[in-house]
Amino acid sequence: MILSGKTIREKMGREIKITPFNETALNPNSYNLTLHDELMVYEEDVLDMRTPNSTRMIKIPEEGIILQPGKLYLARTREYTETDKYVPMLEGRSSVGRLGLFVHVCAGFGDVGFKGYWTLEIHCVQPIRVYAGVEICQIYYHAIEGEYEPYISGKYQNNEGIQASLLYRDFER
């Protein structure tokens, strides 16, 4: 079951936290999240799953920045979210997708108990200018059935900003 916008509002401050919260970003069954003012890009042409890959930060200027096809951009939401008792899911907004901009390659599924900013894996099909603060994606919540173990610690829990892949840690086990 997906929570309605009214239920998201009712659960705010308790089982759901979105900071900052803007009432106008609330939809019938989701909440629009905005793009922060920084992007991260990998510096290597070939990425290695077993090692930390070097990255660099790019500031999005007020006039926006043009993203190029064939390049992966990592970004984050301005909003910090927490959830308890619900599974958070992230989807790109249809208006953004209709411009050929994809905001998450495969990481739209969150864990119950997740706390942090959402790292977005952005790519585009043709050059596109993006701006900090644009409502780029939407978060929605599924009720979870049965007993569960909340996501307390993990590679991406309690993050403070954009996170490059930490998959290499899986090889260290």
Total beta strands: 10
How many helices? The count is 3
Low-pLDDT parts are: none
Main beta-sheet annotation: 8 strands, antiparallel
- State the end-to-end distance: 36 Å
The overall pLDDT, averaged over residues, is 92
- Round the Cα radius of gyration to an integer and report it: 16 Å
Could you say which structural class the secondary elements and strand pairing correspond to? Answer: mainly beta
Strand % is: 35-45%
Amount of helix: under 10%
N-to-C order of helices and strands? HEEEEEEHEEEEH
What sort of overall outline do the alpha carbons produce when their principal axes are compared?
globular
Characteristics of this structure?
173 residues; mainly beta; eight-stranded antiparallel β-sheet; 10 strands; 38% strand
Task: Kindly describe this structure.
The protein has 173 residues and is mostly beta strands. Helices cover 9% and strands 38% of the residues. It has three helices and ten strands. The protein has helices at 5-11, 94-97, 168-171; strands at 16-19, 31-42, 55-59, 65-67, 73-83, 86-92, 101-102, 115-124, 128-130, 135-143. Strands 1, 2, 3, 5, 6, 7, 8 and 10 form an eight-stranded antiparallel beta sheet that branches. The chain has a two-stranded antiparallel ribbon with strand order 4-9. It is globular, with a radius of gyration of 16 Å. 25% of the residues are buried. The mean pLDDT is 92.
